[in-house]
Specification:
The chain is an alpha/beta fold. The protein folds into three domains: 57 residues, no CATH class; 254 residues, Aspartate Aminotransferase, domain 2 (3-Layer(aba) Sandwich); 129 residues, Aspartate Aminotransferase, domain 1 (Alpha-Beta Complex), CATH 3.90.1150.10. 36% of the residues lie in helices and 10% in strands. Strand 11 and strand 12 form a beta hairpin. The longest helix has 37 residues. The two termini are 13 Å apart. The relative contact order is 0.13. It binds pyridoxal-5'-phosphate.
Length: 494
């Protein structure tokens, strides 16, 4: 049955745009053809012309606009409300960044524009690299990777290349058991074996555990500071000393930089290579796969291996994209990377300045600690003694034992209360984990409202656990079969 779209209510089902197609209906007015119509097969090289029509939907402009606006209203975003997705840093993205990224000189710049005509854009890249080097204490930066995971991959490729050049190829990488899944994935893609390092009972990386596992076959340790339990790795310098003494490198996952920037620099606590998640820390709307930018920062020894091209400031004050680096690992992304995200990050940093960078991390940590203080008597907090950095991890194991309401039920109950759920079941070392990151952009009131929702769920779970198994009930679609959605995705209508 063809469904009618939601002119009555925004919650109405929305058909595919193809189902709204009516032959001959136009969304635009094109000038009359003033040339004879050509048969594509006669003008395109053999094999490139389609035998059949492409089958685009034929719809009017208002139909297109309404279709996509209605679809967008089904989505929850950081512009709708509180989005405490731990690890993902869903903070509010200032609209000024959007203005800057849309300036025609940036937005319409063709990637093949010669350097002489793209001076402003290259200058922006050079300046952003300098800012990131200053914030991180790293010797050199490349903006090219397209996401945090891609930055990790790039950094580990550089470490592998550097060790190979030294005639010291190694096979293993050590990764703490609290690590984000992209860390081991990066190693596997790079041909490394992964050995998992157990954290201490307090949730820290233990230099003694590293010392036991560290040998001349270990290329690197990949650590995250603050780690995914929201704790500052207090032995990070000792860990780095152990690794360096055996000729290995220390990779620092920089996804949590918003907790420490302006206060502590990875380059100063022994990190040799790191990635930045520009789209998180330096505010670009993200999620759903992009767009992102995951620059890498490296120490002096790794700098020759940075990807190409390198944006450079030349002696005469002009700027150029250089391909001249014989030891480079080459390109990891087309052109210079996701330039729009760089413009947003640059704008954000220019807007807040050095004092703002410090204030960001202070507020991120304050908000997370405030949230933790509001819920810690109700939800068990397994690590950190009631303190955290920019995110906090609580466990609802007790609630589950007492009421049968699961972590997933709590997450769905939060949707019914108007909040995006936090990250759940991660990190893996915490059973029933709720990983919450309010970020620095939230007000005291929104943190309090979210905490109140969590406390309300805990209070009502015993009264009516079934209501939570059914949640969410106030959304357009109710509880989905998430396993089936992941295993048997239906990506297009029959
Ligand atoms: C700790 C950590 N490392 C790496 C990543 C990967 O970053 P991206 O999603 O930009 O690929 C994430 C993303 O959530 C993360 O939280």
């Amino acid at each position: 049955m063809r469904e009618t779209p939601g002119s009555k209510t925004l919650g109405f089902n929305e058909p595919l745009i193809f189902d709204r197609s009516t032959a001959g209906r136009l969304g635009t007015t094109l000038p009359d053809l003033d040339l004879p119509e050509a048969d594509p097969a006669s003008v395109l090289p053999h094999g490139l012309a389609r035998a059949e029509r492409i089958g685009l939907p034929e719809v009017s402009e208002p139909e297109v606009v309404r279709h996509f606006v209605r679809l967008s209203s089904w989505n929850y975003s950081v512009d709708h409300g509180f989005y405490p997705l731990g690890s993902c840093t869903m903070k509010y993205n200032p609209k000024l960044n959007e203005w800057a990224a849309r300036l025609p000189g940036f937005a319409h710049l063709h990637p093949y524009t010669p350097d002489a005509l793209a001076q402003g854009a290259i200058q922006l890249m050079v300046a952003l690299e300098e800012m990131l080097a200053e914030i991180s204490g790293m010797a050199a930066i490349s903006l090219q990777p397209a996401a945090g995971a891609h930055g990790e991959l790039t950094a580990m490729m550089m470490i592998r290349e550097c060790l190979a050049k030294r005639g010291d190829p190694r096979k293993k990488v050590l990764i703490p058991d609290t690590a984000h899944g992209t860390n081991p994935a990066t190693c596997t893609l790079n041909g490394y074996e992964v050995a998992s390092v157990p954290s201490t009972d307090e949730g820290f990386l233990d230099p003694q555990a590293i010392a036991k596992m560290m040998d001349e076959d270990v290329a690197a340790v990949m650590l995250t500071n603050p780690n995914t339990l929201g704790l500052f790795e207090r032995y990070v310098k000792d860990v780095a000393d152990v690794v360096h003494a055996k000729g290995g490198f220390v990779f620092g996952d920089g996804a949590n930089l918003n907790a420490i920037m302006g206060r502590a620099r990875p380059g100063d606590f022994g990190i040799d290579a790191m990635q930045f998640n520009l789209h998180k820390t330096f505010s670009t709307p993200h999620g759903g796969g992009g767009p992102g930018s995951g620059p890498v920062g490296v120490c002096k020894d790794l700098a020759p291996y940075l990807p190409l091209p390198r944006p450079l400031r030349l002696g005469d004050g002009s700027f150029a994209l250089s391909e001249d680096a014989p030891d480079s690992i080459g390109r990891v992304r087309s052109f210079a990377g996701n330039f729009g995200v760089m413009v947003r990050a640059y704008t954000y940093l220019r807007e807040i300045g050095a004092p703002g960078v410090k204030r960001v991390s202070e507020m991120a940590v304050l908000n997370a600690n405030y949230l933790l203080s509001l819920i810690k008597d109700t939800y068990r907090v397994p690590f950190g003694n009631g303190r955290c950095m920019h995110e906090c991890v609580a466990s609802d194991r007790d609630l589950q034992k007492e009421t049968g309401v699961s972590t997933l039920d709590v997450a769905k109950g939060l949707i019914d209360r108007g909040f995006h759920p936090p990250t759940v079941y991660f990190p893996l070392v915490v059973r029933g984990a709720l990983m919450m990151e309010p970020t620095e952009t939230e007000s005291r009131e929104s943190v309090e409202e979210f905490a109140a929702a969590l406390l309300d769920i805990a209070a009502r779970a015993a009264e009516d656990p079934d209501a939570f198994h059914r949640a969410p009930e106030r959304t357009r679609l109710g509880r989905l079969d998430e396993t089936a959605a992941a295993r048997k995705p239906v990506l297009k209508a029959e």
